[in-house]
Model the fold of this input.
Amino acid sequence: MMSLLGQGVLTVVGNPGILLAMFVGVFIGIIFGALPGLTTVACLSMFLPVTYVMSQEMGLSMLTAIYIGGMSGGLVSAILLNIPGTPSSIATCFDGTPMAKKGLAGKALGTGVFASIVGNFIGVLAMIFISPPLAAATLQFGPWENFGVTLFALTLIASLCGKNIYTGLLSAVFGMMFSTIGLDKIDSSQRFTFGFNSLTTGFGLLTVLVGMYAVSEVLKTASSDQQEGKVNEDFHMHGLGLTGTEIKSQSWNLLRSSLIGLAIGILPGIGGSTANIIAYSVAKSSSKYPEKFGTGIIDGICASESANNASVGGAMIPLLTLGIPGDGSTALLLGGFMLHGLQPGPLLFQNNGSIVYSIFASMLISTVMMGVIMYLCMRAFVKILKVPSFILIPCIIVLCSIGAYTLNYRTFDIWALLFFGIIGLGMATAKVPLPPFILGFILGSDFEVNLRTGLQYAASDHLMLLHRPIALTFVVLAVVFLVISIMKLRAQNKRELAMQKEGGGAV
Done:
């Protein structure tokens, strides 16, 4: 294995053409990831035809470089504009933007890039060394196991609810309700379309995400004083953005979050958009100071960015060893493999081992390139904050509209952007948290489909879940985590109430 990896590194490093293709791929991926409304999927779909004339190693190296760059680029707009550039950078907004508003935009960006590098390396190394056994383990996952994982992920909503768990749960249920609109994924019957044909496909994640974060942020800025809530433009960053002491203190958080992202990336259909929120939730619930999350601390950025980047390596494992794409990006990568005459599956390593390991090497080198490009361009990124609002707002709206339109090439999705922007603004005004809504929307469909499919398999066996140890373990963990989260929230609210009473008595 190590000899093949060494040969792969030599193949990549010894070919200037491959290095140039990778550099261009990483750079373009970062740009697409950073621009609100544009996605890694759109970038891959645009550049897939470009690889037609390239060799196998060069073409696939460029595509995987775009994948890595796009996943990392989302942190830029998430931190600087409070707009997640990709669905995988939602949780980066929670602490990234508050840090930028404190004048720590450079530190926040540096922390995000460092966490991205760590997550990528852990994900890619895991992909190299443990692909076969991990891929084999996922074959044990049926509908009940996926239901258990989804249920456990939904219980993490409790840690995203803030001080009022009821408004958070209401937000999550609201999100799950919107996920049911469109054609039923099991029997294809129309649900909640009210006679509108445009609703038969439901709402895309990009439309919901960009609408509730980007458009609502634009509406909020446009309706308020231009100076109110303006991000501090000062740029201060030393070294990598984190001190040695901070890196040491975040080492367990980085490792744990990366492993969470890796595990979730392996499961088809979930991906980085869920991994970053789950990792953030786990980091917050296990922290000694959960009340500081959301105020601008590096813990949240480290958790989110390391998880979503580690999910890249995780998503590649079932793609390479089983030929199963986990999301839109890996589906396009599957097309890229087949385009270049490679058939992902159990025989890929046996028949095309040298090419596969050259791709592994290119992903490791692309991670280094991503870090170098991001750190060198950091001051340019921060200058985005100096763009006047009357120029920046129309540009954001145009980019968001283009991104929404290219989903299905219909104007309905542009109107849906405005619709969810108004909903997001209303929820923010009513102090109803947005993250539970997003998590509910992402997982609602998987929760329903896996539960109904499991019940169909069970037929008259109402206790089938008890005979599925993996699924039962996740269900038990979900119940335990929910109970612990509720107890923690109640205890925290009681402490704050007691402190308020003591303060009132002192006055």
Summary: The longest strand covers residues 182-183. DSSP finds 20 helices and two strands in the chain. Confidence is low (pLDDT under 50) at residues 226-232.
